[in-house]
């Protein structure tokens, strides 16, 4: 579990870490209660929570719930049972709740409860204010053919959108695209990664009493909501707080400089960045580090590149010596320049020898091979103070060089929650696997961290150079692990993009991030 040392800047924006489980873990946590004969109670709790969230969504949508029309698409299993019980609860609150049975059979007791509440069955879902997707749930496997839904209705998924794999977020066939998903027992990985993220909409959780049976989470998702830790946003959220009842929610937060700090105690960051072909990468990485906050930034670059950096950032020191460095950034903008790559390899060796925290990005990732890790100086590990920042394409090239079939398969199947930890295990380094969902994994048993908040504008040249500078600055200034600094850097990077581009239009270049990083 991550911890944050006492900090004088508790008003600094923080990022609560919300636990996430796989569908298999949730089902395993339910099993002792099912064996004890509490299956009906679990279903009642889930359906009551589902109905409560639907009422809040209807209230926000219409201003009232009385007379609203809700149509449930009902499957044959427990997911359909949850839906039918929820429809029965809704009818008692004045909602015109109806059901469409999509399978020949359904949950018998739930159907009886629905009919006892005055519910009626129909054959189409036309004309509803809200459509409840309760066709298939976490136990579903195989391919799904999603029905066509009418335009204009809000779609709420029961536990997860039908057709989405609860583990990986994969869709085999087609899946229902929800505006909201009300999930039971805990957030599920399939709602946050892969195609599941795009199909789930706003996430809400319902505590059904699994707390004592839940295992160590499969990971933690970083949330930007600080006032109510554990929520995932949207109407009626807050169930994750109840899941975490009695636990301290860990929060990522930057530590401010001490009152008696000076430039060396705040940390010197040494950046080996830029080349004649890619001089802008040096500007971006150094600028990002300064905007994040360091005691001193040193740039190691060809003379023309270093002069341009110092001209833009006169506080920067041009130096080929990294003896006083508290952290290093190696790689942005080096390209395939053989001299620059040789300098990078020498600096990486210095980092490993002296255990100086280091970010390896872009071209420097090409240094990582089986032969390098087999070198006695590395003994199979780059060190947990090292942070690798590949995007998926770079990770695939790493997998080829390392010759690991397990990593290659995970990347080919877009299983990012498996790929990042595997790469961390193979290299002994912290891995930031960048993408629409970014996964931060460290060697060892610590669960991976997920950043899921959308920032589509970051899909542009140079933003990786900015991220490397941010993480490097945090490694130099924060008294925290490399895993902690990497995760915080990812969050700050995306938050800057959303401040700059709140509607996600993507109309900015990487250099614009530097203006808002210090806010």
TrEMBL record:
<keyword id="KW-0547">Nucleotide-binding</keyword>
<keyword id="KW-0067">ATP-binding</keyword>
<feature type="binding site">
    <location>
        <position position="465"/>
    </location>
    <ligand>
        <name>(6S)-NADPHX</name>
    </ligand>
</feature>
<keyword id="KW-0456">Lyase</keyword>
<feature type="domain" description="YjeF N-terminal">
    <location>
        <begin position="26"/>
        <end position="216"/>
    </location>
</feature>
<keyword id="KW-0521">NADP</keyword>
<feature type="binding site">
    <location>
        <position position="333"/>
    </location>
    <ligand>
        <name>(6S)-NADPHX</name>
    </ligand>
</feature>
<keyword id="KW-0511">Multifunctional enzyme</keyword>
<keyword id="KW-0630">Potassium</keyword>
<dbReference type="InterPro" id="IPR030677">
    <property type="entry name" value="Nnr"/>
</dbReference>
<comment type="similarity">
    <text>In the N-terminal section; belongs to the NnrE/AIBP family.</text>
</comment>
<keyword id="KW-0520">NAD</keyword>
<protein>
    <recommendedName>
        <fullName>ADP-dependent (S)-NAD(P)H-hydrate dehydratase</fullName>
        <ecNumber>4.2.1.136</ecNumber>
    </recommendedName>
</protein>
<dbReference type="Pfam" id="PF03853">
    <property type="entry name" value="YjeF_N"/>
</dbReference>
<feature type="binding site">
    <location>
        <position position="281"/>
    </location>
    <ligand>
        <name>(6S)-NADPHX</name>
    </ligand>
</feature>
<feature type="binding site">
    <location>
        <position position="391"/>
    </location>
    <ligand>
        <name>(6S)-NADPHX</name>
    </ligand>
</feature>
<dbReference type="InterPro" id="IPR004443">
    <property type="entry name" value="YjeF_N_dom"/>
</dbReference>
<feature type="binding site">
    <location>
        <position position="464"/>
    </location>
    <ligand>
        <name>AMP</name>
    </ligand>
</feature>
<dbReference type="InterPro" id="IPR029056">
    <property type="entry name" value="Ribokinase-like"/>
</dbReference>
<feature type="binding site">
    <location>
        <begin position="434"/>
        <end position="438"/>
    </location>
    <ligand>
        <name>AMP</name>
    </ligand>
</feature>
<comment type="subunit">
    <text>Homotetramer.</text>
</comment>
<comment type="function">
    <text>Bifunctional enzyme that catalyzes the epimerization of the S- and R-forms of NAD(P)HX and the dehydration of the S-form of NAD(P)HX at the expense of ADP, which is converted to AMP. This allows the repair of both epimers of NAD(P)HX, a damaged form of NAD(P)H that is a result of enzymatic or heat-dependent hydration.</text>
</comment>
<dbReference type="InterPro" id="IPR000631">
    <property type="entry name" value="CARKD"/>
</dbReference>
<keyword id="KW-0479">Metal-binding</keyword>
<dbReference type="InterPro" id="IPR017953">
    <property type="entry name" value="Carbohydrate_kinase_pred_CS"/>
</dbReference>
<dbReference type="Pfam" id="PF01256">
    <property type="entry name" value="Carb_kinase"/>
</dbReference>
<comment type="function">
    <text>Catalyzes the dehydration of the S-form of NAD(P)HX at the expense of ADP, which is converted to AMP. Together with NAD(P)HX epimerase, which catalyzes the epimerization of the S- and R-forms, the enzyme allows the repair of both epimers of NAD(P)HX, a damaged form of NAD(P)H that is a result of enzymatic or heat-dependent hydration.</text>
</comment>
<feature type="domain" description="YjeF C-terminal">
    <location>
        <begin position="246"/>
        <end position="519"/>
    </location>
</feature>
<dbReference type="InterPro" id="IPR036652">
    <property type="entry name" value="YjeF_N_dom_sf"/>
</dbReference>
<comment type="similarity">
    <text>In the C-terminal section; belongs to the NnrD/CARKD family.</text>
</comment>
<keyword id="KW-0413">Isomerase</keyword>
